[in-house]
Design brief:
The protein is α/β, with parallel strands linked by helices and 257 residues long. Strands 1-9-10-8-7-4-5-6 form an 8-stranded mixed sheet.
Length: 257
């Protein structure tokens, strides 16, 4: 028994040390330039297919959420560590993600202004629409400056957590928001994994078959990062939480430095 207790104590001590090292901003290996990261990862096509089956059935308090098991946990961890004063979500859909974020923030007991943008808010579920902790803005991200005008962005407290999930005008909207970010802010660009399903429901609706997305969105992120290699760094603590790029968001967890 004593041997087992000693072994258990060593394991816990090693675990706590590893977590502390990963979270240390002084650890140079944690943050790397986007160009120094491989685009591929440790997630197999079979794992992606199987996890997609669950992703498209996921809900939060009955509202469709559509987050995979990996990034749900990673984002939850990031929110606790960062404690963002502002969350900007690009892509609301049914409102599940914004509602989930608001509930997580409330459970963590810190205040954050949550803004969710979508071109069509008529799809919002009533529970999400009525959430007092989320501000929804209807607008076209092709004209992102109208959705999130300069005067609004300048008054939003930092640090920010920006979650891009609209797949439209990716370079343009990131370039626009970049002008207002500050060191310490985080930018998450979703669905950059080259083997992600092309269509919603692949893995769930078997008749759709399976067609990998390819790296179109990843290429857009590369364009955005071309002249910003020293401005945004990939946070490998989050990006490789479950293994190298074992996430739907390959090299997509970016810290403004």
């Amino acid at each position: 028994m004593a041997t087992n207790q000693t072994l258990g104590s060593k394991i816990i001590s090693s675990y706590e040390t590893a977590v502390e090292n990963h979270l240390s901003a002084e650890e140079p290996a944690r943050y790397v330039q986007f160009k120094d990261r491989r685009l591929s990862g440790d997630m197999s096509l079979e794992t992606m297919l199987n996890s997609s089956h669950g992703k498209f059935m996921t809900s939060w308090r009955g509202v469709p959420l559509m987050k995979d098991c990996f990034d749900l946990i990673i984002t939850q961890q990031l929110l606790w560590d960062l404690k963002p004063q502002t969350v900007i979500e690009l892509g609301a859909y049914k409102g599940g993600s914004a509602l989930w974020t608001a509930d997580i923030v409330k459970a963590y007991r810190f205040k954050s202004r949550i803004i969710s943008v979508d071109i069509n808010l008529s799809m919002l579920c009533p529970l999400a629409r009525e959430c007092p902790d989320v501000t929804y803005i209807e607008g076209d991200v092709n004209e992102i400056e109208k959705c999130l005008p300069e005067e609004l962005l300048k008054e939003l407290p930092h640090p920010w957590f920006i979650n891009e999930d609209v797949h439209v005008n990716v370079v343009g909207l990131l370039e626009y928001l970049d002008k207002f970010t500050e060191p310490g802010d985080y930018l998450l660009v979703e669905d950059t994994n080259p083997i992600k399903p092309t269509y919603i429901g692949q893995g769930l609706v078997k008749e759709l078959g399976y067609d990998p997305l390819g790296n179109e969105k990843l290429e857009q992120v590369k364009m955005f990062m071309k002249d910003r290699s020293d401005r945004y760094l990939v946070d490998q603590y989050y990006n490789d939480f479950f293994g190298y790029n074992v996430t739907y968001n390959s090299n997509g967890y970016l810290k403004r430095v």
